[in-house]
Amino acid sequence: MRELIYVGAGGFLGTVLRYGVQLGLEPASSNFPLAVLMINLAGCFFLGWFFTITPTKWQISAEWRLLIGTGFTGAFTTFSTFSVDSIHLFQDGQVGLAVSYILLSVVIGLLMSLIGIKAGERMTSSRYPRESKR
After folding, report:
1. pLDDT tens readout for residues 7-20
2. What are phi and psi of 37, to 5 degrees?
3. What does the DSSP 8-state code read for residue 29?
4. For the chain, percent helix, then strand, then coil, each to nearest 5?
5. Residue 27's CB: how many other CB atoms inside 10 A?
6. What is the CA radius of gyration of the chain?
7. 95: CB partners within 8 A, 6+ apart
8. Which of 42, 31, 2 is nearest to 90 (CA)?
9. Does 131 or 80 have the greater pLDDT score?
10. SS3 call for 10
11. Nearest Cα residue to 76 out of 23, 51, 24, 39
12. Using one digit for the tens of pLDDT, what is the confidence trace for 43-56?
């Protein structure tokens, strides 16, 4: 039960932040879902970094990892909105925009996750070398 409270608290904070970012970015994005793209890319970077650095450099409790990693980041990012936005772009006849959005989200999302992981590894390598997974 305690874990659910941590996930829920993180989820609340992540949702509120996502809503604020969407309010700030949506007017500037016209038909393109820029806010969701930026939110998801930031989340990809952060989660890659967070789950790389916390086991070694910043050893935090499992509850805090649930709050920040699962709750906060899970609620801040939004795959479902990405999916619905993509379908709406297709339905509106904006095929090029839809394909661009999907490719940007997936390809740059993977790249941002990798950059986050590499940033975490770089931060931990000098004092806390990572164990080999062989």
Report:
1. 999 999 999 999 99
2. -60, -50
3. S
4. 80, 0, 20
5. 8
6. 17
7. 89
8. 31
9. 80
10. helix
11. 39
12. 999 999 999 999 87
**Residue 92 structure tokens:** 């509106």
Residue 28 burial (CB < 10 Å; 0-12/13-18/19+)?
exposed
For the chain, the first-to-last Cα distance in angstroms comes to 35
Instruction: Identify the CA nearest to 82 among candidates 37, 125, 122.
Output: 37
Q: Is the distance from CB of 88 to CB of 76 less than 8 angstroms?
A: no
Which residues are within 8 A (CB) of 44 and not within 5 positions of it... i.e. 6 or more apart?
77, 109, 110, 112, 113, 116
For the stretch 45-67, what's the b/e string if a residue is b when 16 or more beta carbons lie within 10 angstroms of its beta carbon?
bbbbbbbbbbebeeeeeeeebbb
Q: Token match 């990809």: residue?
A: 44
> Taking Cα atoms as reference points, which of 54, 46, 48 lies closest to residue 130?
54
Give pTM, 2 decimals: 0.85
